[in-house]
Design brief:
alpha/beta, about 350 residues, ten-stranded mixed beta sheet, two-stranded antiparallel ribbon, elongated, DNA polymerase, domain 1
Amino acid sequence: MPGDGHRPGEIPETGLPNLKELFPQEVEDLFSEMGLPRYRGRQVFRWIHKKQECSFHNMTDLPRDLRERLAVVFDIHEAGVITRQESRDGTVKYLLGLRDGNAVEAACMRYRYGVTACVSSQVGCRMACKMCATGLSGFKRSLMVSEMLDQVFIMNRDVSRKGDRVRNVVMMGSGEPLDNYDNVIRFLRLLNEPAGLDIGFRRMTISTCGIIPGIYRLAGEGLPVTLSVSLHAPNDELRDRIVPVNRRYPISPLLDACRAYIRASGRRVTFEYSLIRGVNDSLSCARELGGILKGMLCHVNLISFNPIEERSYERPDPVVIKEFAAVLKGYGISVTIRRTLGSDIDAACGQLRRRYCASHI
């Protein structure tokens, strides 16, 4: 469902062209059709993408009459910040209000290798993974390209006040990115534009719960982005229970798709594994996981389950996580125990939006 029928470059509510979703060449072509110099299009693109400006009136190197004309003809509306939560560890969680009344989450995290923007691709999610709060509220719609850009722009402006910038983008917020494929790819290509934020593709990650056709399609894009697969179980019986999409896309063909992506991109695949006490954290699960991943160019991120009110799941003891990691290392698998960020705020995916919707609907 790429964009729910919305054409790139158009705001459904107004029908006005949205320049935010267009590439530099497309903006220049549009300006040329209007009888304007092509370089004005390049200027506007830089204002929107390099400086994250959301008002034509602030584009001070454009003539005033042109700014007034653009404000009538085009739309560069930006999502509004409803709530901003900051954790003691520096993680910032945003709830952004969209024009149609929906809300979406985004998160900004600080690592030693730079600021990472965690971006949502949909309002809600169809996948209903059991360890995620997003699916509890159901699926509303896919996000437009501009709505994903807004998340990064808002976070980048925020961190720029401290002399920093967004250096990495991970599609690990609400929604399944490969269920909004066309818009997600256009969004990432726009982030990569040299006249904009110029974020390298190797600093981008697409996370999926395992949409096999989307993985093969991504392999054909020729983009060296990191593919991250939310695996969470070493066998179909267990994964069917906690990641329901596994009933349609089981583990064996999923791993075949991952191998195809590795061959096409030359990049290792990351497997996310959220450890839930008494569910998937046993040493036998670790050995089974090691067995199916052994020899693959991959990395495993072990995540201590982030509790949500609506589930009875609990996180395992730290010693259990370390023992699980040790087993995987014994199979020659690269493994990291992910540092828990934002534990003192609504950091679990979907929590902040769910609380907001419960109190406002």
